[in-house]
Structure formats: C-alpha cells, structure tokens
Amino acid sequence: MNFRRFWDTPNLEQVSFLDLPCYVSSERFKQPEKDENGILNYYLLDAASIMVVKALDLNVNDVILDLCAAPGGKSLVILQYLLSSIIHNNNYFNMNYGGFLTANDPSPNRCRRLKQVITDYIPPSLQHHIKILSLDLSLSLPTYDKILVDAPCSAERHLLNSPSEFSNWKPSRSKIMSQKQYKMLLDAVKGIHVGGLLVYVTCSINKFENEEVVKKILKNSWVPLEEVKSEWMIGEPCEKGWIILPDKCDGWGPLYFAILKRVGEGEFRKKEKRTFKGFNVDKNIENDDYEE
Predict the structure, then answer these.
(1) Could you confirm whether 249 is annotated as catalytic?
(2) pTM (predicted TM-score)
(3) Which residue of the set 22, 203, 238, 249 is catalytic?
(4) Cis omega before residue 71 (within 30°)?
(5) How many domains does the chain have?
(6) Are 4 and 35 in contact (CB under 8 A)?
(7) Which reactions fall under this protein's catalytic activity (predicted)?
C-alpha cells in the first residue's frame, strides 16, 4: 500500500480486488525512500489488512477509533480513505476536509512505534486528522461512527517461524485470549453510535478467538447488535464473519474479521461484578454464559 507513486520496483502488479493503490511484485521491495516532502513513499502491508479497513465502509467525515492501532498499518489505510480527496489532488487544497481518527495502543512501546509510523507517512499539514493515545480505554458513551478492534490474539502463524513462541505455546492460550477479546469487545461496542459499525479482527485461525467470541457478544451485549454479512473477493465465510487463509489466498493472511452494526440504544440492566478466569468483568445478572 503506498501513499505516493513508486515505479522503480520491478514486475509491479496492482492488486485487483482492492480500491486503494496496492501492488505486489515477484521481486523484493526496496526500503521506502522519502519523497520531496520528507514522507516515505510506500508501506508494506498484507492485502488482507486493507480488506478489514474496507469492511468499515468509511465515509470521508467519519469519526473513527482504531483501538489497538500499533504498529500503524491499518491506521494509515484508514487515513488514506478519510483523506482520499486531499491526497488524490496532491495539493492539500482543503486541510479541514476529512474525518478524524483516534489511534490507540495501550502498550507504551508499541505506541512509540505507532507515532513514528504516522510521522513518517502523514504530512504535518494533515496530522490534525489523527490523535494518538496510549491508554487502556474504557468506553461508556457512543462517540464513534466506526471502531476497529484488531484484538491481541494467539497469532498461530508466528509459531511456525519462531521456535521460542512455539515452545511457549499451550492449548489453554487460545481460551485465555478469547476471554480477553470478549471483554474488549463488550466494552468497545458501547462506543459506537446507533447505525455505526465495529469490525473485529484477529490473525488467529482458532474459532474460539474468532466466531465464538462474536457469537457470545451478539448474545450477551446490552448494546443491540447484528452481524453485517458480506461477500469478499478472497477468503471464505465462517459461521460468523470471514477468514482469509494463506494456503488458499496466495499467501495473504491469516486474518479473521466480523462486521457488527449497532442497531439500537440498548437498555440499562443492573450489573454485578464477577471474576472471569483471573480478571474482573461486569456481568449482566440475566446472563449465565460465563465461566465462574
């Protein structure tokens, strides 16, 4: 995915199923170089990651939250959609046109990487369209038109390339991650305006971190939600959501995503505090779908 044209890489071929300028090559890409404005000319990113941003169905004036944004690739894609009119004209004719992105990552180290990516790829004249935070955000009011939750996951693909990761892997890891992902989603859906979208993303291939989390949030969230079903050019449907697998999609992925739409205000329900596998969550009294 590139923010400026580059034609010096051999055998460039545009990815046909994306509406942003995204290219592949049989040759290894060179290191990005700065253009005349001091901005790096392209960013290397899996095409599946661009698809999940496309799933947000962004409008140029949307207010968006990227909840776990580091290292920053998906945030760059969000900004490219939001600022498409400005970037396309290449003269920054109206600096106040376009939406706003809050890019958050609770890890200070990862957030530093996120800030560097934004500095390297977004001109200073456009950086007022993004705010970078490093907080363990707790959402209580509908604030955003769209939310991207690229949740921490067990990331099984890394196990094949990292002996240390493989040696530390345990069967219980996915179950523990799914509990954290559910808690994150339970909080995040409260931040969407009625009619807004949340896209839940993992790079896991384990259904317990993917469609099982989505099924649980659809059943238990006090915020009325429905799944938005869509067909995509690559990948395949799951019981809930969509998955892109490298062995079936020319090496793209693995990446799972599901689109959730808030369809109503929701009703206040009395809550009590319960312990959920080592950490506390708010539990609706009517809901018995927890492991105590």
Answers:
(1) no
(2) 0.84
(3) 203
(4) yes
(5) 1
(6) yes
(7) a cytidine in rRNA + S-adenosyl-L-methionine = a 5-methylcytidine in rRNA + S-adenosyl-L-homocysteine + H(+)
